[in-house]
Amino acid sequence: ASVELPKTARVLAIAAVVALLWWLWRRRRRRPLAREAPYAIAAREFERVEALGLVAAGERARHVSLMVEILRDYLAAVMPVAATSLTSSELLVVLRGVRLTALPRVSALLHEVDLVKFAGRPLAAARAVTLGSEARSLARAVHEAVSEPAMERAA
């Protein structure tokens, strides 16, 4: 036995379907918001960490940890294989696969910072600043390396 809906219920059901279709159509038409470039985000974050004055406050290990974290976040943003969930060793293995020219520098930085973070290796203030600068420099080098092919294709 078929149950017939009252006329009001049918009108409301049709109105709901039309409203849903209209909402889906508008949502699909919206353009995605422009995302900030990964290097711009990294550069801003490097500035933010340096402005915290962690080295001067005696928080050298925290300073280098944060600077390397920014580098790793940047690498993950431009190279999906470089997931932030990877250990330093795993990251180096996948970076070998993408033929990163700065790999020896990345390896040395990650190794030294891991010793500071996990083995409690003492770190002089000057060395903390140097390691932070190296993280920033590596992000810049990778940015230039990944930007060059795009510029060559545009020419």
Mean pLDDT: 88
Q: In terms of structural class, how would the helical and strand content be classed? A: mainly alpha
Return the string of H and E elements. Answer: HHHHHH
Poorly predicted regions: 150-155
Number of helices: 6
Task: Assess the beta-strand content as a share of residues.
Answer: under 5%
**Main sheet: strands, sense, barrel:** none
Write down how many β-strands occur, each being a DSSP E stretch of 2 or more residues. 0
Q: What does this entry look like structurally?
A:
With 155 residues, the protein is mainly alpha-helical. 73% of the residues lie in helices and 0% in strands. It contains six helices and no strands. It has helices at 7-29, 38-51, 60-78, 88-97, 103-119, 125-154. Helix 2 (38-51) packs antiparallel against helix 3. It is elongated and about 80 Å long.
Helix and strand arrangement:
Blueprint lengths: L6 H23 L8 H14 L8 H19 L9 H10 L5 H17 L5 H30 L1
Helix pairs in contact: 2-3, 2-6, 3-5, 3-6, 4-5, 5-6
Task: From the structure above, extract its key features.
155 residues; mainly alpha; elongated; disordered C terminus
Q: Can you summarize this structure?
A:
The chain is mainly alpha-helical. It has helices at 7-29, 38-51, 60-78, 88-97, 103-119, 125-154.
